[in-house]
Amino acid sequence: MKIPRLLRVLASICLVALTLSKVAAAADTKAAGNRKVAVVVSTLNNPWFVVLAETARDRAKELGFDATIFDSQNDPAKESQHFDNLISSGYRAVLFNCTDAKGSIANVRRAKAANIPVFCMDREIEANDAATSQILSDNYSGCVALGQFFVEQIGETGKYVELLGIVADTNTWNRSKGFHSVVDRFPGLKMVAQQSAEFDRSKALEVLEALLQRNPDINAVFCGNDAMAMGAYQALLAAGKAGKVKVFGFDGADDVVKAVAEGKIAATVMQFPKTMARTAAENADKYIKGERKFPQRTPVAVELVTKANVNKFGDYGRK
User: Fold this and answer.
1) H helices of the chain, where?
2) Residue 260, Cα to own-chain centre: how many angstroms?
3) Distance in angstroms (rounded) separating the CA atoms of residues 297 and 276
4) Which residues 6+ apart lie within 8 Å of 92 measured at CB?
5) What confidence score (pLDDT) does residue 4 get?
6) Distances in Å between the alpha carbon of 85 and those of 68, 73, 108, 234, 284?
């Protein structure tokens, strides 16, 4: 018996529909099973960034993701390679701490084009339409508070050195601008040198040793992060000037918080890396579940840490 042409056509349509539904179901199952999240950080050569990376990874794991940390070693080329890898490997989201505020934008855009959302932590990229969100410390206001304490400690006259961080990082300049918005009001406070030590402890030691040769009578050193503050303290210790020259940092790293308690470092500013990292991981989870509205920048408040209140702080946050 011949099957009518109409029935054959309907049977073919049903077969195609069944095949497509199976393909779609398989794709959905694959997407649901893909729980990979990348944590890309500028460097693991600084304990502060280790805390940022590990907290982001651990919170992502608590939320059910398979999270992997990628260390860019402060190298934009290596960072770009990481993005090549995570895009080709089908990661669902990136928790990102960039190497370069401008140079890293292209990597974030490539991920976005591949439908991989990027959530920046601590370090900002200078674009408003690339990252899904950016969770950033309020660096400027933190250094306004630090600048005020600096003047209280040094007085309205004196000489100081500023050690800058990585010049391509907006944090470097936001901190410097916040500090100078206060200190530059006092003409008697003279900055005799301003030089980058790249947020690195060993580099800060070398830079300050050289600067002390030319400026042996300084009263203070303002450092753009705590790693540099510890390097500066080591240089002063070697020169027999520890205790005579006050050192100011920024980050709230554990070793510097202890040094503030011991009177070796005058003050630091506590960022909250764990808060930023957890927020980034939680936002990624919300995005993957369907949420799409996130503020482009979320500021995280910071706190001045001095000998008077240091007992309230520890383990990269408040006790």
Assistant:
1) 5-33, 47-62, 76-88, 105-113, 139-154, 170-183, 201-214, 226-238, 254-261, 273-288
2) 23
3) 12
4) 34, 35, 36, 37, 65, 116, 284, 288
5) 53
6) 12, 16, 13, 39, 19
Nearest Cα neighbor of 132 from 300, 281, 301, 302 is 281
Which structure tokens are listed for 258? Answer: 């202890």
Residue 20: per-residue pLDDT: 42
Where b means 16+ CB within 10 Å and e means fewer, 276-300 reads bbbbbbbbbbebbeeeeebeeeeeb
Nearest to 218 by CA among 241, 187, 234: 241
- Per the DSSP assignment, residues forming a β-bridge with 160 are 191, 220
Q: What is the pLDDT of residue 13?
A: 46
* pTM of the predicted structure, to 2 decimals: 0.87
Residue found under tokens 């630090």: 146
Question: One-letter amino acid identity for 188?
Answer: G
The dihedral through the CA atoms of 252, 258, 261, 266 has a sign that is negative
Sign of CA dihedral 278, 280, 283, 285: negative
* The predicted structure's pLDDT at residue 32: 45
CB neighbour list of residue 115: distance below 8 Å, 6 or more residues apart: none
Residues of the chain with pLDDT under 70: 1-33
pLDDT at position 7 is 45
Q: 102: which residues sit within 8 A by CB, 6+ positions away?
A: 125, 126, 168
Neighbour count for residue 71 (Cβ, 10 Å): 19
Q: How far apart are CA 117 and CA 99, in angstroms?
A: 18
